[in-house]
Amino acid sequence: MLLTGRDSAMDANTWVSMREINSERDLIAGENLQITLINTARGEPVETVRFSPTPAVGQYEWTKAFADYINATAVHLRAGVRQTDGTFKTEHSSYLNKIWTDSAPDRVALTTACRFNQWSDLYTVNAVGALPEGTTITCNLLNKSTGDLYQTVQCHVPTERLGRYWWPAYLSETINNRGELLRAGEKDDAQKKFVPIGSSFRNHVWAPAGLPLTLEFDVGFSPATLASAAQVFTRLCDQIPKSIPSAQDIDAWLSGFSDGKFRDITYPAQGSTVEDISGLNLHLDRAFRIACYLFSQATASPAHYLSHALEALNFYARQDYKISWWNRQIGLAKKAGRTAVLLAKHLTGSELIKQFIPYAMKTTNTYAYIQTGANLADFASVQILWSVSAWKNSGQGSYLLYLRAAADVLSGLCQPVEREGKEHGEGVSVDYAINQHNALNGSQYCMQLYSGSYGAELLNRIVEGAVVLVSEFSLTATALSELVNVVVEGMGWMGYASRMDFHVNGRAISRGVPSNAHIAKWAEVLLPFADTANKEALNELIRRTSGDESNNQYYRGGRLFWVNDYLAHIGSHYCVWAKAISTRTVGGESGNGENPKGYYMGAGTCFLTHHGKEYEGIQPVWDWQRLPGTTVEQVPNFKWPNTAWGVNMWGSHDFAGGVSDGKRTLLSMELSRKNVTHAYKTVMATDDRVTCMGTGIDTRSVMFPVVTCVNQCIARGPVRYLTMDNQEHTLEQGSLTADNIQAVYHDGFVYTLAYFRSRPTVTIEVKSCSGAWSDINIEPPRV
């Protein structure tokens, strides 16, 4: 095509070349092209040409078609090869067609018909979580210098594409389908195109180079979502346990208060490493309690209480002390976050956004740290605190994305994890036990059963979240269903007569014998989400946690937690728990000064209970070389091996496991530990009895006696025993060793001692013991 006619004189004298129309590939069907001529001095668009080249999409076809269209429709633009007479000829070429304008000064042409390396990366689409239903994303392409708007894309994300990895791809598709100056997706240099990716971080937004441009990214929420956020704030405030001081106490604290500091507290230097956090804890405790007082008031009165509490919070954030990761990111972070939530009732001018919220976001979040299980749940709970307080204080909807992300994390934590996945098996297992601190043995992670302490923390955080997170921010239906399964099929079997089993508590056994009362609280919250069968089980659990085991229906029989080599069996009037170890599992751990003598825990240990007090408080006086169920060489002054974080707590053989038909349960293993090798140990449980067997035990290398401990528990009532001549005797105090004992009676259990080739030598001992918890735990109680 030759451009001729009334503009030819102007063509001959005033047109100036600006850039080329470049083609490096065929166009995709439906792909649109655009060129926008911009006055650089004012930032205003002078002229825009949009073109859809269908059906001419070939690499050398669409360039000519685009140039022809520019020449036919534009006023200030021309395209093609300039001829000697000043006219323009369009070519089938990937580079010959140039773009021309009738006035070169202060003008630039932005076009999507450029080389692939001439696109500018304006924005990374980072998805911290899913989007609430009804979300609209608006992208504005702006001149960075003048603020002039060149393109707006509004994306209404459909329900089926709201997921964290789906909405960025949908947004990218929407931008590309619009076909103006913006493109989105991952840059594919081989294909020379932008490909939308199902990813939380790989999609970028691009624009042609030529001007300083910026992308304004805004997320809009529906009225229903904002109403749900308000509900979350109210529920969160209700859930926070409050300690309201008197005004007199507050006045005393604030006497001499300056620069965010209380006069009577000694503070470390800014940015310093702090071992003793008692001063920081007291500082945040006062700020929190002042917030509690203000929250109880209809208005923030007196006003200086509010300003000083905010100053105290900001002071803590500014100092950025180097303290242990748990206190920094969970313990103190939670206290600070709760303070911010309560203060947000009266703060209305984005005061929290200036200092505290940036610190809180940097310190504890679910998207920039690698945590698992209970620790990740704690991170999510802290993120709920700072995201809700930030939204309430500022009204900025973007903070609600972090709230939704926290809900996503809690939903994900309800799902069983992969043994070889990124979590290395930490979290809810497919057998509905909970694992944490899985120990690395060579290249393999060994599963550590932790349902009772870390697992309780995990479920506490999830259930707390389920209570406050509603509607658009609620946990998914699938997650809640799985959470019911974790409680019913997992936790419900690990407690009896108001007590939790030692095996499920890891190093926390050095803190005491935990109650299972928290299970009732979970069950009450989960009842509305359970089906009929699970409702019955949850109601039974609520009754059982009060100590009533008299009429169990669902919890009768056994469960084999095969991932963890763990047996739980509830009979007609008793419960037994047994733990084996293999090359895939560990029996426990020590750490932070806790549980230094737990080397034999899980190595065939077996605990019996029918009233829940059999082992109450026994740990400081236990002989840890004689844990119930173990077969151990009795080494005097035994030097306990290093078991920090599960090291050396794994089993010696692959063979370990069991089976259950619901009525009968069996657990078996082969174990070599120290000088006692190739011990085959088995526990079998039925409705009214437990059978324990050991065979093939090689003791040829031992130097001291080898003992299999049947039980080591609190002496309650008389200890009677039956000799082979059917004579009954009572042992009041002291120790008795004999080879003619056929049964022992104590605290409701009958221990029948069978033999095959020779009678076993049996020792019965009743004695008073003393000990200190500090012998097995030098740390304060925390997970």
UniProtKB/TrEMBL annotation:
Q: Does the keyword Acetylation apply?
A: no
Q: Return the InterPro entries for the record.
A: Chondroitin_lyas (IPR008929), Gal_mutarotase_sf_dom (IPR011013), GbpA_2 (IPR041029), GH-type_carb-bd (IPR014718), Lyase_8 (IPR038970), Lyase_8_alpha_N (IPR012970), Lyase_8_central_dom (IPR003159)
Q: Which SUPFAM superfamilies match?
A: Chondroitin AC/alginate lyase (SSF48230), Galactose mutarotase-like (SSF74650)
Per its UniProt record, what Gene3D superfamilies does this chain match? 2.70.98.10, 3.30.70.2150, Chondroitin AC/alginate lyase
Q: Cellular component GO terms, alphabetically?
A: extracellular region
**What Gene Ontology terms for biological process does this UniProt record contain?**
carbohydrate metabolic process
Query: What are the protein's UniProt keywords?
Result: Lyase
A GO MF term: carbohydrate binding
Q: Which residue range or ranges hold the Polysaccharide lyase family 8 central domain? A: 559-778
Q: Domain named Polysaccharide lyase 8 N-terminal alpha-helical: which ranges?
A: 311-537
The active site is formed by 437, 454, 507
The source's domain of life comes to Bacteria
Reply yes or no: does the keyword Lyase apply. Answer: yes
Q: Where is the N-acetylglucosamine binding protein A domain?
A: 15-105, 119-209
Q: Which family does it belong to?
A: Belongs to the polysaccharide lyase 8 family.
Instruction: Spell out the protein name for this chain.
Output: Polysaccharide lyase family protein
